[in-house]
Amino acid sequence: MLPILTIVIVFVVLAINELWWRFKKPTDEISRKTVHILVGCFVAFWPYYLSWTDIELIGVAFFVGVYISKQFKLFKAIHSVQRSTYGELFFAISVFAVAFITHDKLVYATAILSMGLADGLAAIFGTYFGQRNRYKVFGITKSVVGSLIFFITVVALLANYRHHVLNPHEALAYVVLALIATALENVSIGGLDNLSVPLLIALWLR
What we know:
This protein is mostly helical. Helices cover 74% and strands 4% of the residues. Strands 1-2 form a two-stranded antiparallel ribbon. A hairpin with a 2-residue loop joins strand 1 (134-137) and strand 2 (140-143).
């Protein structure tokens, strides 16, 4: 019952976002990243009430659902960005892959939030406040503000993971990890960062 309810909640979030996009007309990027944050934060806490098998199966189901949606444009809001991206598909793969890699609830939540929350906030802040400090990586526009927000968010998530005051060696290790994750986010084209970043975090922390 809980897996079905979980899928229904995600579908409702996508449907509400679709209506918001159609009638309120936010920018394509803001619409996509808003649902990215909402769904990412929701997915991060699945291990606290779903089994790991349930999460893996839902991840596979999401991949199939997103692929069908992308082919037939069922949810235009999340597919409306002009550049070529497979971020939604990589998102679905990461749900399965991270659950396969680790069965530690907090590691899973930290890895998924590094994708859903950090990436989403970086895009939103970069869109509104990064107009004057933009740069391009492989033809994709980035911003210093966006990258800084991504880095800070990942550092905060890693600090929360420890639950105690970090010693200098731990602090340095997490700063390095956040820097690597930020670099990965910059160079992963076509939405690949939705998979590469959470996998990096999960493999490092497990």
